[in-house]
Amino acid sequence: MATVTVTKIDVSPNNCPISEKLDLTVTFKVDKPVQQGVWQLKYEVDYTFKRHILDVANAEAKDYAAGEHTVSLSVPSLDVSGVKRKTLLNMGLMRLVFLSGGEHISDVNMVVQVTEGPEDALLRNIMSPLE
Hints:
The chain is 3% helix and 64% strand. The chain contains 1 helix and 10 strands; from the N terminus they run βββββββαβββ. It is elongated, with a radius of gyration of 15 Å.
């Protein structure tokens, strides 16, 4: 199985309304070729025994040669409409999962802090594990 090393994570926009568009770009290295590798972005939030896992985006499956690569995922908005406000105000986790042929290769976990902003707006801050 390949080893994945993430070298850079860019989140845009950040420190913005929670449902704002989301662009995520990750630069990573693999030490061995990966066949039909796919990146999946998921947002997880918990509140007293209730866990919500939202499928945010998927990159198309592709073959990755050993070496450095970049993957970008983008959504026009982060749909959290099915999650209660009090649940969103807990710390969450944005998980970027790398799979090959359905087999798990690696995770990149980014803590998501949601706070109340002006006029009761919910603001998200996605924290890179590299910083």
